[in-house]
């Protein structure tokens, strides 16, 4: 065993020899990127040891394994997280210090892989962290996009999208390993012919194009264990040889087309969330990665057991929303066409293997594919989906005899579309929502008719977040305080945070907790200064809304409230308020006009207020944080005093940002939506600010169509005055009328849709009152500090470790690896 000094020396020697071998450099001559890359190599050696051992232990163990399929992952930067898992953060920091380098600067070199849009992708990464930490055998499977989610710049107050070539930035991604022996071919297009062989129907698939799938594996380090999980991302490549057959038939163009088709599949992540995109490339992406994954799973299983009959005992596959749903017909295809198994037996096995998690109730986000496109691109999969549909409709007929409308709406193929959610529900063993409320809405509303047929399938599992990234990594100052006051158990058992409860009445502790918050606010202020040249005052309340820009999340309501405060400060010299800096961070899908206008409004307002008289500026500030991503979230969230979770009730499936803020001691102002409901239950009514309609009230209002935003406007002077700013030229000095649309949607609706579909004006009055109460509470320093501590103390339930244990109990039934 080496002592501490020797281990540090080992790191230093490792860095030096890597610089020499890789780049022909010394510490003096190397640049920051080279030093970063050398550090990664040194850390990787240790990680590789653990990874190899994990694979051996897993093979020996022979238990059931989980494959978590997701078209998005948002892992965040790897270096700091991996050093924490290795327990080596300080050692690396000191080693680098001896070389005259600050570890922060080195960590800042690293790209943040933006291989997802928002909540769904980040959840997938939190789950992989927990699976590894809890020693469950699991692999995440997705796509290695060459371009992640666009980088956002704000130019003239508007969002501008810049390509995210994250792989180019560092000359490749140093944490990944290509696994060439696990390459698979994926087929697109072509023709089907049928033939009876000994009375059995055989389907032949010919004239297809081939794309090669090459996996790149990333290690996912468990915390407090040597277990290392795997995130496998598939990259698309053209077949090594040009298709000689079509080439020699003179089909030169076809042969070259194949190359084109292949190259483009894993190029870019679609930047749309909660909005379906009926593009053929997207369908190709989905089939590409699910086919490769299923081929790999089948090969591994057959290597051990020779056949697929016991597949359901050894494999479970979780489908993260409907995007990976083609895994279901793909598994059937292999069982039937390649393994010669019969249809019914194959279907029965399939139904035991898959679990489906739904992440949204917005109807515009439920995936449907045009039948013709589907058929042309995936003829064999199309035929299989038809087979599934026939069986399923026959089954429904028994349950709902003669009820054609109902059966029609539940069918997998209908109105020339393939409905992916229906496919998932029909073919999965379990269907789950991501919060209590969301699960109930799935049963009562979205999947009501399915629920009647197979009620046992439906369940809810409340989302969670990994405390390793969202506490240990993001908030070292708070962790130090926690370590000193309640020990370190909370790192692997977040419910241990409840040991803080008694300290919520200890004024010395409250002060130390508040000091940590202030330190994090300063850290964020410095970061913002350096990134965007904006100065903010850490003595003001930091009130934060950071999440994707979407109408249902109601950033617009937040902005109208700020306009209202501005108006009162400007026009009423007797109006006093606790000084607040409102902070926004949000990306909008590039073609989502309304969301882009909301971003513009935030930026315009920010400028407007910065030019106001000092009495106003001292009390009110607005800033927009550019390019929100995991790295920005890690700095922003620990600096928040107030967390805005204000979606229209019934629309946000769960939310996970809400949990991150709570864990870091922010107090929530929010509606009873998604996991906010459970946050309120955990933290208690006195430690959260709830306002607005409930999901049931929203439901009723919509059902009876008895809401008039015009009346809400007429009856409330604050609303009228705030709304006026959108059209009276105050916010668009050049008379560009940029915010006319926002005004119009709220009061009149756009081309035929109802006015104010997300009830912004309806909830505005209670939102505004709730903010006033919150400011009063903040002035009572002791009371506020106590609330803040209790939010952290009661966040234990929202660990993704708890979510994973719930999934395992209800669905997966995995055994832990013997570490
Ligand atoms: C087809 C385009 C598309 C892309 C992404 C449709 C839908 C999605 C996702 C399902 C949207 C999403 O990220 N949903 C979020 O999932 C989180 C994790 O469960 C929840 O916390 C959020 O409430 C939910 O909006």
Structural commentary:
- With 819 residues, this protein is of the alpha/beta class.
- Strands 1, 2, 5, 6, 9, 10, 11, 12, 16 and 17 form a ten-stranded mixed sheet that branches.
- α12 packs antiparallel against α13 (343-353) and α14 (371-377) crosses α15.
- The mean pLDDT is 95.
The secondary-structure class comes to: alpha/beta
Radius of gyration: 27 Å
Question: In what range is the share of β-strand residues?
Answer: 15-25%
Mean pLDDT: 95
Q: Helicity, in percent?
A: 40-55%
Note the gap between the termini: 21 Å
Distinct ligands: ligand 26W
Total number of helices: 35
The main β sheet shows up as: 10 strands, mixed
**Silhouette:** globular
Beta strand count: 23
Poorly predicted runs are: none
In brief:
By secondary structure, this protein is of the alpha/beta class.
Q: What labels would you give this structure?
A:
single chain; about 800 residues; alpha/beta; 10-stranded mixed β-sheet; 6-stranded parallel β-sheet; 35 helices; 23 strands; about 15% strand; binds ligand 26W
Q: How is this fold's topology laid out?
A:
Elements: H1 4-23, H2 32-61, E1 65-69, H3 79-86, H4 89-98, H5 103-107, H6 119-133, E2 138-143, E3 148-155, E4 158-164, H7 166-169, E5 177-178, E6 184-188, E7 191-197, E8 200-206, E9 209-221, E10 228-237, H8 244-248, H9 252-265, H10 280-305, H11 311-314, E11 315-320, H12 327-338, H13 343-353, E12 354-357, E13 368-370, H14 371-377, H15 379-399, H16 404-410, E14 413-414, E15 417-419, H17 420-427, E16 430-433, H18 436-446, H19 448-453, E17 458-460, H20 467-473, H21 476-486, H22 507-532, E18 541-546, H23 555-571, E19 580-585, H24 593-610, H25 614-617, E20 620-625, H26 630-636, E21 642-645, H27 657-663, E22 667-670, H28 676-683, E23 689-690, H29 695-703, H30 709-714, H31 717-724, H32 740-747, H33 760-779, H34 781-793, H35 800-812
Parallel strand pairs: 1-2, 1-11, 2-10, 11-12, 12-16, 16-17, 18-19, 18-21, 19-20, 21-22, 22-23
Antiparallel strand pairs: 3-4, 5-9, 6-9, 7-8, 9-10, 13-15, 14-15
Helix pairs in contact: 1-2, 1-4, 2-3, 3-20, 6-35, 10-12, 12-13, 12-15, 14-15, 22-34, 23-24, 23-31, 23-33
Bound molecules: ligand 26W.
Residues 117-120, 123, 272-277, 321, 359-360, 365, 367, 434, 463, 652-656, 674 line the site of ligand 26W.
């Amino acid at each position: 065993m080496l002592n501490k000094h020797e281990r540090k020396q080992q790191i230093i020697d490792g860095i030096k020899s890597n610089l020499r071998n890789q780049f022909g450099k010394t510490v003096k001559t190397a640049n920051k990127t080279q030093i970063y890359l050398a550090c990664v190599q040194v850390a990787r050696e240790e990680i590789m040891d653990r990874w190899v051992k994990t694979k051996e232990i897993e093979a020996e163990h022979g238990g059931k394994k989980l494959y978590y399929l997701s078209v998005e992952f948002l892992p965040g930067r790897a270096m700091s997280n991996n050093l924490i898992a290795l327990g080596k953060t300080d050692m690396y920091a000191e080693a680098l210090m001896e070389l005259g380098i600050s570890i922060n600067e080195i960590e800042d070199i690293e790209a943040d892989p933006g291989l997802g849009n928002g909540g769904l992708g980040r959840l997938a990464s939190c789950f992989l962290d927990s699976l590894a930490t809890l020693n469950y055998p699991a692999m995440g499977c997705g796509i290695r996009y060459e371009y992640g989610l666009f980088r956002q710049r704000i130019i003239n107050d508007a969002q501008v999208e810049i390509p995210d070539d994250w792989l180019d930035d560092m000359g490749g991604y140093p944490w990944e390993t290509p696994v060439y022996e696990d390459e698979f071919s994926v087929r697109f297009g072509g023709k089907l012919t049928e033939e009876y062989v000994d009375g059995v129907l055989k389907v032949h698939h010919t004239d297809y194009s081939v794309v090669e799938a090459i996996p790149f594996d990333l290690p996912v380090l468990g915390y407090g264990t040597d277990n290392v999980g795997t995130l496998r991302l598939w990259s698309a490549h053209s077949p090594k040889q040009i298709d000689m057959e079509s080439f020699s038939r003179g089909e030169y163009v076809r042969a070259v087309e194949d190359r084109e088709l292949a190259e483009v599949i894993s190029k870019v992540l679609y930047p749309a969330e909660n909005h379906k995109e009926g593009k053929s490339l997207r369908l190709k992406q989905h089939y590409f990665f699910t086919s490769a994954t299923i081929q790999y799973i089948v090969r591994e299983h057959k290597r051990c057991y020779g056949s697929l009959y016991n597949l359901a005992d050894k494999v479970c596959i979780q489908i993260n929303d409907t995007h990976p749903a083609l895994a279901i017909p793909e598994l059937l295809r292999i069982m039937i066409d390649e393994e010669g198994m019969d249809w019914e037996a194959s279907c029965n096995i399939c139904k035991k293997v898959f679990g489906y998690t739904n992440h949204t109730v917005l109807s515009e986000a439920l995936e449907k594919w045009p039948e013709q496109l589907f058929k042309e691109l995936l003829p064999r999969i199309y035929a299989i989906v038809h087979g599934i549909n026939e069986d399923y409709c026959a089954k429904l007929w028994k349950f709902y005899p003669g009820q054609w409308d109902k059966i029609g709406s539940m069918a997998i193929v209908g109105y020339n579309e393939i409905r992916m959610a229906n496919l998932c529900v029909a073919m999965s063993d379990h269907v789950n929502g991501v919060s209590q409320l969301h699960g109930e809405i799935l049963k009562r509303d979205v999947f009501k008719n399915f629920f009647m047929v197979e009620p046992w399938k439906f369940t809810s599992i409340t989302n969670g977040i990994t405390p390793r990234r969202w506490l240990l990594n993001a908030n070292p100052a708070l962790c130090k305080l926690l370590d000193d006051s309640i020990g370190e158990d909370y790192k692997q058992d977040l419910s241990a945070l409840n040991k803080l409860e008694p300290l919520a009445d200890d004024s010395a502790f409250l002060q130390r907790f508040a000091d940590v918050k202030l330190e994090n606010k300063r850290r964020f202020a410095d970061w913002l200064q350096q990134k965007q040249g904006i100065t903010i005052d850490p003595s003001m309340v930091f009130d934060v809304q950071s999440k994707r820009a979407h109408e249902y999340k109601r950033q617009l309501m937040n902005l109208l409230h700020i306009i209202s405060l501005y108006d009162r400060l400007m026009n009423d010299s007797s109006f006093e308020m606790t000084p607040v800096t409102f902070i926004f961070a949000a990306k909008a899908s590039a073609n989502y006009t309304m969301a882009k206008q909301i971003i513009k409004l935030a930026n315009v307002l920010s400028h407007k207020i910065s030019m106001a008289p000092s009495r106003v500026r001292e009390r009110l500030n607005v800033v927009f944080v550019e390019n929100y991503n995991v790295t920005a979230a890690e700095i922003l969230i620990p600096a928040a005093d107030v967390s805005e979770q204000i979606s229209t009730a019934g629309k946000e499936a769960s939310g996970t940002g809400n949990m991150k803020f709570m864990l870091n001691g922010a107090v929530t102002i929010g509606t009873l939506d998604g996991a906010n409901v459970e946050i309120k239950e955990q933290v208690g009514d006195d430690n959260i600010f709830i306002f607005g309609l409930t999901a049931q009230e929203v439901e009723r209002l919509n059902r009876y169509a008895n809401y008039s935003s015009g009346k809400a406007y007429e009856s409330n002077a604050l609303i009228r005055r705030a709304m006026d700013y959108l059209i009276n030229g105050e916010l668009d000095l050049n008379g560009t009328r940029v915010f006319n649309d926002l005004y119009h949607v709220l009061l009149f609706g756009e081309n035929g849709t109802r006015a104010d579909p997300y009830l912004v004006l309806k909830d505005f009055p209670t939102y505004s009152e709730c903010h006033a109460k919150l400011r009063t509470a903040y002035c009572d320093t002791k009371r506020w500090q106590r609330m803040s501590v209790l939010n952290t103390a009661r966040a234990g339930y929202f660990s993704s470790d708890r979510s994973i244990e719930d999934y395992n109990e209800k669905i997966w039934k995995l055994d832990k690896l013997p570490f």
